[in-house]
Amino acid sequence: MFSNLKTSSREVAKDGTVNISSVQLYLKHLGSKVERPREQLAGFRRVTLQPNETKTVEIALPASRLAYWDVKLQAFRVESETVSLTIGDSSANIALTGTVEVQ
Length: 103
What we know:
By secondary structure, the chain is mostly beta strands.
């Protein structure tokens, strides 16, 4: 069971990092000006639990991981946009969703 999707901040600077508490973290670019994957695995942690045990798992998501290659600039670029965050034990079993604003 998953509960309480938490991010260290609701916003992240283009050169910053936001921490997400989850097991498998997927993201979706909601406002990108370039074509992006429909969904991508952004991080995961393997967790072993005893019966009835709970743990909080934190995954760092540097904003630089949201970058795309800008052909015109010949450099990676991080866009200002809203990014959808989803967590679950697989992409087929998403339990919680949230968003973060890339500034």
